[in-house]
Amino acid sequence: MHNSGDESAVLWLDQIQEAVLAANQDEEEALTLAGAVADINRSVAEGDSQDTLKNLQAPCAGLKAVLPECADTYQAELEQTKTSGATEGNTDSVWIKHCIKDKYDYYYNLETGEGTWEEPEGYEHNGGQLSKDEIQTVVSCVTAEYNREQLWLANESLVTQLQARVRGYLVRRKHAQRMEYLHQQEPHVVKLQACWKGYKQRKIYKERMNLLQKNVASVVMIQSMVKMWKSKRKYSQRLQFFKDHEKEIVKIQAFLKANKARDDYRTLTGAKDPPLSVVRKFVHLLDQSPLDLQEEQEGTRLREEVVTKIRSNQQMEKDLNLMDIKIGLLVKNRITLQDVVSHSKKMKNKKSKASKDDLTAGDKLGIKGLSKGKRRKLEAYQHLFYLLQTNPSYLAKLIFQMPQNKSTKFMDTVIFTLYNYASNQREEYLLLKLFKTALEEEIDSKVDQIQDIVTGNPTVIKMVVSFNRGARGHNTLRQLLAPVVKDIIENKSLGINTNPVDVYKAWVNQLETVTGEASKLPYEVTPEQAMSHEEVRNRLEASSLALRTATDKVLNSIVCSLDNIPYGMRYIAKVLKNSLHEKFPEASEDELMKIVGNLLYYRYMNPAIVAPDGFDIIDMSAGGQLHLDQRRNLGSVAKMLQHSAANKLFEGENAHMTPMNNYISQTYEKFRVFFQSACDVPEPEEKFNIDEYSDMVNLSKPIIYISIEEIINTHTLLLEHLEAISPDHSDLLHELLQDLGDVPDVESLLGEGAVDSSDPNRESVLNQLAKTEISLTLTSKFELLEGDDKDLKALMTKTKKLIVDVVRIQPGETLPAILETLATAPQELEHTKIVERRAVQDAQTPEGLKSNPAVLEDGQLPLEQKKRKILRNLRNLEQAGLATAGDKYQELINGISKDIRYQRRYRQRRKAELVKLQQALTALNSKTAFYQDQMNYYDTYIKTCLDNLNRKNSRRSIKLDSKGDDKGSKKCKPQSLKYTAARLHEKGVILEIEGLQTNQFKNVMFDISPTEEVGDFEVKAKFMGVEMEKVQLHFQDLLQLQYEGVAVMKMFDKAKVNVNLLIFLLNKKFYGK
């Protein structure tokens, strides 16, 4: 009160009374505490641990963490502490000092038990007494030590077990390292010992021989008995020497034989004309072992699983995309909730049916039945699809005979199915040959200007890009782009915005947020006005720097990962470049590289950078999505790379980006080198080591898995366009289609009785059963048929197989010498044993892996009959110019040598394919799980909508009553739209119609009407009132084209349409947007 400086400040009586009571209470507490501490010191001095424990536990002492189990330890530690304190201070004083509430000193008299707040006269602290803090410290330490000891005791077994496992691991690792070292060095040790022992034996032998030669005269003089005894002893020693060194001799012989075998194999693989004596030593490699059969079966099984899983995933993806559209329309009240629920149930039904179906479920009925007629029909289809698969010209022409909407569906289903989604190298080779043929056909017939490849949407290019983005589950783009895309997405500080107006608006918003006042700057400005502000220029400069840095990372990842780009993409880029150069020889190398860049970067990589979540580049949870800023960053980088790949400089609306033009030119040079290197790939024949005889050497026949509906559609299309794709009536395709006859219906292929004729839902059941998949083992109708020696390829293969059987039994320097020499009885016996062993093995071989019956029949002939048949075949081949007696039929020997080398590479390739198929199956299963998560997410969303609907009794715009839906749909169903081509031309939707002048557009009428499927439209074209053509238009496909940046598309193969304006028209007229 005195220090406050306020003279009027006084204490009231109540305040004084409260202060007195508080002081008295503090006095009592201090005295009680001092007494308790004195009691503890006394019991410690007396040495009674239980009394000490009791005083420690006294509430007035205020001590924490006191445990009865530590009583003796408390006593010992407190005594030690008290003793050490007594040695350092005075122990005779009766006064001790306590600190109360960390700020008041309280003096306690040990003799009288009284205390005072004021320091007594002559005060001297008793150092032999422990304070409360010292006691608490000792108690806390002892208790903590006890708790720690109990913890170790409780976990003693775990600690022991951990130590044992660590020691065991160290010992095992040391032992494994030692064993690995010994195993690695074993060949060197064996070789060293062999060489040293050989040297020693040669040295001993030379010394012995020298000794004998020096004593020839003395030996002659020795009596005959001595000679005989010495000869016997020498013979015995020599014999014993060989017996003692039998292992070394065997090793030397093995070494020499191995060297000889290696020399022979080098001759086989490296010599232009390997001799028959060398080839004969390796013909056993052409035999098929049980391991070969096992690997072939495993490969067939995995290919079946991969193809089935791919088709299942594609169907799930289509259903989920349609569900996206339906939910989007539901949100905008364009459809009812019942439509979404209905589609969800269809998805579940398809999934449950797919899980129960089996590819072999219908093998006993229909086309795969056991009757002769059905078997003939099956073989006819197998011959047809083999011809289509191995001769790409038919499918290439067929693709361009169909309307674009049909050809796209045909490619996505039948073509990829026919080639098993390139699940092995043979089918990848054949698919690439189809792509090449189709691309050359499209460029030759549909590309009038070199820029049509860029501005249009070529069918083959779209098919190639779609396939190489991971139809088989191998997402190469993920390996190529995932690291750099993740860096851009996860960089929270990265903000790329090169639009001056957006940057200006963000700056104004920031100023208003910071100051809390409305900015005096205008909000709506032009890019030029925005660039007039220094802050905007600074921010744009920072964004440009960040953009260059991010672009460089992505570019470096692309150009350094040339080997990661699929061979198929690089080969098609090479074909594209060469075909365009052939058709447009005046085009510069720079123009061609831009076209290649459009394929490799813009069509293949760019969409994956812009939308990595949509192309499986990054992992996203169901319902998850990228932030707007992340998408803008990725879009900016993609746009910069797009301009760089095409060497397109910024100008016009992007004039503010002109400082980046120099960077674009530099980046284009890197891209140009990359595109040139990408086109530098070998031909498929060299890459896959496949030629015209490969199918005849392979153990297993190609198998495809195709639905009944796809068989019927393919048959129908071939008959419809037969004259266009095969005008020559003597062509094999005409013969095969004639064997098949008319197009069968679904029920005839499934088998009579597959569907009950009285079933009211018979049509829908048949439509569902049409999706049933069957397996077809593809074979050539003209492959090794008995007596069919006109097929020179088959005759060549048959003759080589017979020669192999003969030369492995009968030796000789040349083939004519062997064929002219009669076989001995032992040789005939050995040949009979081989034939019997082969027959036993063939009986155990699965049906799909058995050899051709004609080949089996030839293999069972006696040795002499085989030789006679070889001579007859050689004369036919010589007449055809495929063999020459003058060089002793060396061409056939070279062919056998090539088959031996191919067989070895085929086994290696098969092992690699098994690994790739396993990886593909794993990736496909992961994708299936992701789609299942998406379906579960949609199910949860629909359930939430239903729950919300059921909670409210009021009428909603979403109705679940089917009758109400029917009425509502009738009221709200949009009518078809009719526009003349002239009106659509005014709107900018139609740009031009081939073969028609603009003043004639008024005679063309377009009728656009929605179908039952949401998002699908039917467009009919009429000229002078006569309907000319109609096409199905999928809204999702239009959005995909818009997303990929395709501005112009062709409709009816004649009308060029602006994609963006067509989408705007459909949104406005049918969706009210």
UniProtKB/TrEMBL annotation:
<dbReference type="GO" id="GO:0005096">
    <property type="term" value="F:GTPase activator activity"/>
</dbReference>
<protein>
    <recommendedName>
        <fullName>IQ motif containing GTPase activating protein 2</fullName>
    </recommendedName>
</protein>
<dbReference type="GO" id="GO:0005516">
    <property type="term" value="F:calmodulin binding"/>
</dbReference>
<dbReference type="InterPro" id="IPR008936">
    <property type="entry name" value="Rho_GTPase_activation_prot"/>
</dbReference>
<dbReference type="GO" id="GO:0005938">
    <property type="term" value="C:cell cortex"/>
</dbReference>
<dbReference type="InterPro" id="IPR000593">
    <property type="entry name" value="RasGAP_C"/>
</dbReference>
<dbReference type="Pfam" id="PF00616">
    <property type="entry name" value="RasGAP"/>
</dbReference>
<dbReference type="InterPro" id="IPR027417">
    <property type="entry name" value="P-loop_NTPase"/>
</dbReference>
<dbReference type="Pfam" id="PF03836">
    <property type="entry name" value="RasGAP_C"/>
</dbReference>
<dbReference type="InterPro" id="IPR001202">
    <property type="entry name" value="WW_dom"/>
</dbReference>
<dbReference type="Pfam" id="PF00612">
    <property type="entry name" value="IQ"/>
</dbReference>
<feature type="domain" description="Ras-GAP">
    <location>
        <begin position="413"/>
        <end position="646"/>
    </location>
</feature>
<feature type="domain" description="WW">
    <location>
        <begin position="89"/>
        <end position="122"/>
    </location>
</feature>
<dbReference type="InterPro" id="IPR023152">
    <property type="entry name" value="RasGAP_CS"/>
</dbReference>
<dbReference type="GO" id="GO:1903479">
    <property type="term" value="P:mitotic actomyosin contractile ring assembly actin filament organization"/>
</dbReference>
<dbReference type="GO" id="GO:0051015">
    <property type="term" value="F:actin filament binding"/>
</dbReference>
<dbReference type="InterPro" id="IPR001936">
    <property type="entry name" value="RasGAP_dom"/>
</dbReference>
<dbReference type="InterPro" id="IPR000048">
    <property type="entry name" value="IQ_motif_EF-hand-BS"/>
</dbReference>
